[in-house]
Task: structure prediction
Amino acid sequence: MSFKVEKRQELDLRLFYLTPVLAVVLTVLSGFLLFLLMGYDPFLGIYYFFISPLLSSYGLAELGLKASPLILIAVGLAIGFRANVWNIGAEGQLTMGAIAGGGLALALIDVQAFWVLPLICVAGIIGGMAYAAIPAFLKARWDVNEILTSLMLTYVATLFLSTLVFGPWKDPMGFNFPQSEMFAESATLPIVLEGTRLHLGVIVALLVAVTGWVLMTRTIIGFQIRVVGQAPAAAAFAGFSRKRMIWLSLLTSGGLAGLAGLFEVAGPIGQLIPSISPGYGFTAIIVAFLGRLHPIGIIGAGLIMALSYIGGENAQVEAGMPQAVTGVFQGLLLFFLLASDFLARYRIRFEAHTAKRKEALAP
Amino acid sequence: MTATPTRLELRAISKRFPGVLANDSVDLNVAAGEIHALLGENGAGKSTLVKIIYGVLHADEGEMLWEGETVKVADPHAARNLGIGMVFQHFSLFEAMTVLENIALGIENPGDMNALAERVIEVSHAYGLPLDPGREVHTLSVGERQRIEIVRCLLQNPRLLIMDEPTSVLTPQEVERLFETLRQLSTEGVSILYISHKLDEIKQLCDRATILRGGKVVDSCDPKQETAKSMAAMMIGTEVRPLSQREGSSSEKIRLEVQGLNLDSDHAFGVTLRDVTFSVREGEIFGIAGVAGNGQNELFQALTGERPVHIAQEILIDGMAAGRMGAAARRRMGMCSVPEERNGHAAVPEMSLTENFILSGYGRMGLLSSGFIRNDAAEELSRRVVKDFNVKTAGVGASAGSLSGGNLQKFIVGREILQNPGVLVISQPTWGVDAGAAAAIHEALFALAEKGSAIIVISQDLDELMALSDHLAVINMGSLSKSMVTAKASIDEIGLLMGGLHGMTEHQPGPNGGNANVV
Result:
């Protein structure tokens, strides 16, 4: 027996939307196996990881808190991915957004006015956009691979943030800890669910997802993005500019990542510290694909990935598991998703092996 | 025949594709050490035939004899084992790898790399094709890349070498050198099957030529005894073709004017457009003939704005300079277009017909209101195209990729015509389309011209151009010939122009020259 892999004539849509579910199931199953091999009670491990965080209102609020930056960033990334623009550096744009908006919050620390919060939000967006403009310019001008430039710039951004909070922006009253002053009340996001940390960002994230959906399905801009991604020659025929799409998708995803970064520092953190994100910018890439690059799918995917963060923390606290378990689960999920995607695009055909070569030459 | 043994013999080879008989009972004999030309227009069936010999395609009927024995070639692997090598027109090399690595990937038993490297140097020098095995392919010129393909074949000691339009990418010096190599191989007993439409090359190089037309062998000759002119006549045929019944436009209003258009090619296999000049009046259909790969794609891109040119004045649409405009801006000025490739260029296969209507019609047909797509309006217009042009589809929600070639082409042509273009540029309007759809498309183009549009048809199908156009010109190596009135054009002259012999007829008017289209 041998087997042959054939490309399907048309994408199997049913499988296309079913595979994310399959990927989640396979991730849980291998998690089970992993816990067993590591010597933990697998049932208890799964319980701490996937179920107990959902049993309290505090847990649910935390879920929303972690899901909102993921959704916000993933919606922006998905727009780019649809246009074949691969922004891998959302983490860096998030950091730059936090620096720009947070820096402004520090400058306005004595101002108590309603306009401070909107203003620092705009600064956060601009910070992210400006940082994404670097790979956009390089790609549009010289066709430099945006995957590499955006990724490498991420490390520059995190080190720049450290430089600031270890140096000029360090709180003089902070006992020499590498952190800025706490932001003023006017530069802090209001809480939407009393007694939890769930802030206004979650509503913004949902609005952005819905807006993204309308943009992609109803407007000529979304149409252009899809055509550029699916058939570049047809886009040239229609007169859609590929360069414009590069700028548009990088600026959009950069701006949204910047806003997500600002929401972190103006929300649960409340100040600038060296590490403001547990890798939201990278995890959002998984969220975008798990959500099938569809803004509404991304909301669901964002919640699932948020659960992996909370579950991971929970498993650390309750069962003493290592911190790496979160990353392992996220990796497993992406792996299974990509692997099962293969089935939606290709079919595997088994056939009996014959000595075809010999036959071919026989007279 | 002669004393030399027959190396390859084809008997009554037929190959049918949906809607076309690509090879119709083709007989062919290639003697040992012979350089044998396969001559014919595009679509004559040359490529299909050599792909059958090389095992890429399989014949529906007929038999193939290799050195006197019947063989069935299942795939190129089997062909190589028999001793058949082929150099394709467009090479398949990995640019980031070295010459040696590329060669090792393409042969059956590469063996030890050092030994292979020595053999590469030895073989390449023996045949005047110097190659450095360690060089990376991306640093090589197109001619050097072709050497890799040839050396790769030679390493396997072929007894038949098939070359598909090998000189189309070479400079004259490189062509000379290649011919020397081929002659050397021939004296060593290697047979060469040489595909080309360049008449002078065939005269220079080949011992015998078989001429294909419409899938059939129509003639064979000794090229050295023929003139380029007589071979052109054999290639194109002298039978009376259905001629354009059109009176031609009486209007003096020029809708499209192209003056001294120049455009550099943007990739290795591209053609540079040089000083292309023509004009098309209101109600006129202007044909551009030529063998594929002589700049048709570049001309289409330059005309439609997919690749704007540097000087605005080189293209005038209704008198307005449009050379620097992009495709969307030219569409607003009334220029619509239909590219040759349906899937992925004229249409997005995964998208619905409605979405594909939006693709080119959103601007001219007012399908946007403040950036939002008016889906209802787009759907209604798509339905109208489907109805008016008799497109067979499950509905306007069906994906473009699900339609048959002919139906998708009718939709695409209908989409552009519905937008009432002032100038329509259409490339290969009926390529791979069944006869019914082709007639419908021709009718639609006539009707559009009647309404005062200027139409430019780029086609490799000479019959089609003869039937459609009022005026026509021939494109060869990126230059466009002078335009001629189709009804008075001489087939001989067109044939010579297509074969790259500009101005030959002026100097050597043959006895059969003049008008072959006596109606």
Remarks:
- Chain A touches chain B through 26 residues (CB under 8 Å).
